[in-house]
Specification:
The chain is α/β, with parallel strands linked by helices. The protein contains 28 helices and 29 strands. The structure holds 2-acetamido-2-deoxy-beta-D-glucopyranose (NAG) (11 copies). Keywords: Glycerol metabolism, Glycoprotein, Hydrolase, Signal.
Length: 741
């Protein structure tokens, strides 16, 4: 609280209201940390999720966070920051150094490589360059120089510096004293935190460093043996009063607090935070990174993970050690203590994509229930048809993509249908609704499969299939601002299946009462203008034209064309933020503005939480990506997403209406910013300019009439004929009744 109110008193009266606003917000969220202050964000080696750990770039890019340095010593007793004692892992070394490769026993583990204490500092600063040690991260910032500890203490003006001494006993074998080194820098600079997994090292500093320096005991894996006491870290956890004799805090792997099962589901939290707080120890949690596999309970959303450590209601840790400092800063600054049940259906609309398909199989009852529970404003149904002419909600016309058909008795009933794709498939129109419901199960979609990322495996086949009529009945009973029905392949269905999908959708809406109500907006989305033209002729529904291609802008004539048949457009993420090799380019984009000034709201598709779906500029953080689409000059009007919960929570964040006083971590990414900061040779290839949208992309021939002579007809006219028969029957009965009177 102190820091906040100080800033307010310095600022002029114009800003006072804003200050009061944020101060009030802070008051209502008294933190459950030991001190009551907001938790500390500790940037491990700086912003090491993006830049090489402990590099100048990484340290410069973590404003507001405490900077963490893994202290290593050189032959001449200088200190450098390097995440690993084995330089092979995190640096490029000259080939001449390869003859120095050694194998050392490092605290009981045999390690082969190159070690800092075998070199003088000048040899390291001049000849050795940092590289990204995590292979899944970008290597485009590799080649930066090593940073001396003194630089971290003085150069970056960090709010706090945290020195971690991972090895003391090991260095002492080389007659290098970590203690002497740390004491000497502590005399010259303010060192806010010193951590170590070695008890005797921390004890040796007791009373020798400033009273303001916090000594933190670092717990390693439970089964690892602490070298000065010969006890495992797991057993030491039971003796916190002992820890308190030499430390003011503990740093523990995050699974000490929230353990996960072997298949990566969260278990109830342990009592570690409570126990430590009772013992008067602060608790810092380690191992946070946005791009490591998170527990499935977090739906691939790292912000949710942080919130569970700082905002759970039961406890808050005192700080988090992370490779991605931006995300916990957001969590602490703008997302704690939100009331997630608040729904106002304000812009931007949160539109589900196949329901909450990030958590449940596409278009199942569970996916829709979750979407509504997560605060979606609009839920969606992509319409397909069964053999018996029943419109259903299914994200793919090929049952192999989204059901268990491959292991069913229908697996071999494949056909090649060139209008759909070149390879064989079993299609929704090949099976009756009964066949589908009785024999198949839904299957969760896995769009990030090539990165070996699977969506919630326990929900893999959960939920039930939905007919369009089931969907409408469900939607109608919920607090939604609307529904979105996607119609594709209408021409194919008419010609080859004899199914008039537009008429079928209109009929389903009529039957469910949607045509007569105004509480929920009915949106019809299609990539084919002829579908929307047909709807426009027959209904007053809200028509959304989905632009499939990545386009830079739209020619005025094309906008005029779109206006003739659509009320809104949906565009790809790339059309708004072009990227090359996963970096945003500085291509300017006028599409959103062009459409909006023509009175067409713009929805962006498809947003996902999984980090490989995002350019690096969004920091592997779905919230940053959403922020960029919403907070840009012309913000989008809707977010079409597999994870409606993340988008809805974004809308509630307490920094949403801060205007120009947005905290730094909520200022949207500058397109091209990361590319600019790369060395020329590392820059990705320039993106060929994307084409603008033109008239010829838009105008389509009208839908063909429904082919009523389809032999192997699924078919709708069979169903319609039957209904006709029924109505004839009813008419006959009425006539009969009339005659009898
Ligand atoms: C470096 O070490 C980390 C942590 O042990 C490991 O995940 C990574 O794969 C290693 N990188 C290289 C290039 O060996
Ligand atoms: C460390 O110092 C001791 C005593 O001065 C000496 O005997 C030993 O050889 C030195 N070890 C190394 C690795 O320099
Ligand atoms: C720890 O154990 C090792 C081997 O088990 C032993 O050599 C050493 O003396 C022990 N150290 C302490 C402090 O007990
Ligand atoms: C805690 O650790 C200290 C030092 O190792 C030891 O003397 C004490 O007996 C331990 N207490 C318990 C309850 O294990
Ligand atoms: C995590 O998800 C699993 C499966 O849905 C559930 O059983 C478990 O209770 C969840 N864990 C927590 C801490 O909510
Ligand atoms: C959260 O919002 C809902 C809906 O607006 C409201 O009913 C509820 O009282 C709110 N809860 C709190 C704790 O403010
Ligand atoms: C699937 O449906 C199409 C269109 O009706 C039909 O041509 C094809 O023969 C069907 N495939 C099978 C295996 O029945
Ligand atoms: C950014 O855009 C400007 C003008 O549009 C262009 O001159 C410049 O080369 C671009 N820079 C990069 C790195 O693409
Ligand atoms: C759009 O529908 C028309 C029929 O109305 C069809 O001829 C055309 O091929 C369709 N366009 C695309 C891109 O599918
Ligand atoms: C098929 O459609 C044509 C034109 O709409 C119509 O004249 C004909 O009677 C229909 N045939 C059947 C069997 O419904
Ligand atoms: C209508 O369906 C019949 C039977 O499947 C087929 O032979 C004919 O080509 C179809 N007509 C069109 C225009 O596709």
């Amino acid at each position: 609280m102190g820091r906040g109110s100080h800033v307010c008193s310095v600022l002029g009266s114009v800003l006072l209201l804003l200050c009061l606003g944020s101060a009030a917000a802070q008051k209502s969220s008294t933190w459950k940390t030991l001190s009551g202050d907001a938790p500390l964000v500790i940037a491990k080696g700086g912003f090491s999720g993006l830049f090489p750990d402990s590099s100048d770039f990484a340290y410069e890019s973590a404003p507001g966070a405490a900077l963490w340095c893994d202290v290593q010593l050189t032959k001449d007793s200088a200190g450098i920051c390097l995440p690993n004692i084995n330089m092979d892992n995190c640096t490029f070394t000259p080939t001449a150094y390869q003859s120095d490769v050694k194998t050392y026993n490092v605290n009981g583990v045999s390690v082969k490589g190159l070690f800092p204490m075998d070199y003088k500092i000048t040899d390291l600063l001049n000849n050795v360059y940092l590289k990204q040690a995590i292979l899944s991260r970008t290597a485009r910032f590799d080649g930066l120089t090593i940073v001396p500890v003194e630089d971290v203490l003085s150069k970056y003006k960090a709010p706090a510096v945290w020195l971690n001494v991972q090895y003391d006993i090991f260095y002492s074998q080389f007659n290098l004293s970590m203690r002497n080194y740390i004491l000497s820098v502590s005399k010259q600079y303010v060192v806010d935190y010193i951590s170590s997994p070695e008890v005797n090292f921390l004890k040796s500093l007791l009373g020798r460093v400033s009273k303001k320096t916090k000594l933190v005991f670092r717990f390693l894996d439970e089964h690892t043996v602490e070298p000065s006491t010969n006890q495992t870290y797991g057993s030491m956890l039971k003796n916190l009063t002992f820890i308190k004799t030499f430390a003011s805090g503990v740093l523990v792997p995050k699974h000490y607090i929230l353990p996960v099962t072997q298949d990566n589901y969260l278990q109830p939290h342990t009592s570690v935070v409570d126990d430590a707080h009772k013992a008067g120890l602060e608790v810092y949690a380690a191992d946070f990174a946005n791009d490591f596999l998170l527990s499935y309970n977090y739906s691939y959303d790292p912000l949710t993970e942080y919130l569970s450590f700082i905002n759970d209601g039961a406890f808050s840790v005192d700080g988090v050690l992370t490779d991605f400092p931006i995300t916990p800063s957001e969590a602490i600054g703008c997302f704690s203590n939100l009331n997630n049940s608040k729904i106002d259906h304000a812009k931007p609309l949160v539109i589900s994509h196949n329901g909450a398909s990030g958590d449940y199989p596409d278009c199942t009852d569970l996916a829709y229930q979750k979407a509504v529970a997560d605060g979606a404003d609009v839920i969606d149904c992509p319409v397909q048809v069964t053999k018996d002419g029943i419109p259903i909600c299914m994200s793919s016309i090929d049952l192999g993509d989204v059901t268990t058909i491959a292991t069913s008795q229908f697996a071999s009933q494949t056909t090649i249908i060139k209008d759909i794709k070149d390879t064989a498939g079993v299609y929704s129109f090949n099976l009756t609704w009964d066949d589908i419901v009785k024999n198949l199960k839904p299957m969760i979609s896995n769009p990030m499969l090539k990165y070996n990322m699977y969506r919630n495996p326990r929900n893999r086949n959960a939920g039930n299939f939905m007919r369009l009529s089931d969907f409408l009945a469900f939607a109608k009973g919920n607090d939604l601002s609307g529904i979105m029905i996607n119609v594709e392949r209408a021409a194919f269905m008419a010609e080859k299946l004899g199914f008039g999908v537009v008429d079928a959708v209109i009929k389903a809406l009529d039957d469910s009462g949607y045509s007569k109500q105004t509480a929920q907006k009915v949106m019809i989305q299609s990539t084919n203008s002829s579908v929307l033209v047909k709807f426009k002729q027959q209904t007053k529904y809200n028509l959304v034209y989905m632009i499939e291609e990545n386009v830079k802008d739209a020619a005025p004539s094309s906008v005029a064309d779109i206006k003739k048949f659509a009320d809104a457009v949906s565009v790809t993420t790339m059309s708004i933020y072009p990227a090359t090799d996963l970096f945003l380019t500085n291509q300017t984009n006028g599409l959103v503005q062009t459409m909006q000034s023509a009175g067409l709201p713009v929805y962006v598709y498809v947003l996902m939480n999984e980090f490989p779906s995002q350019p690096y500029d969004f920091f592997s953080d779905a919230t940053q990506q959403i922020n960029a689409y919403v907070k840009r000059q012309s913000g989008v009007d809707g977010l079409i997403t597999d994870f409606p919960g993340t988008a809805h929570r974004y809308k509630l964040n307490s920094c949403m209406n801060m205007g120009n006083s947005l905290p730094g971590f909520m200022i949207p990414a500058k397109p091209g910013g990361l590319i600019e900061s790369m060395l020329g040779a590392a820059q990705p290839p320039t993106l060929a300019p994307m084409p603008p949208l033109t008239e010829s992309d838009i105008v389509e021939p009208p839908l063909p009439p429904v082919n009523n002579s389809t032999a192997s007809a699924p078919s709708s006219h069979a169903a319609i004929r039957m209904r006709t028969d029924v109505s004839i029957l009813v008419t006959l009965m009425l006539c009969a009744a009339a005659l009898m009177i």
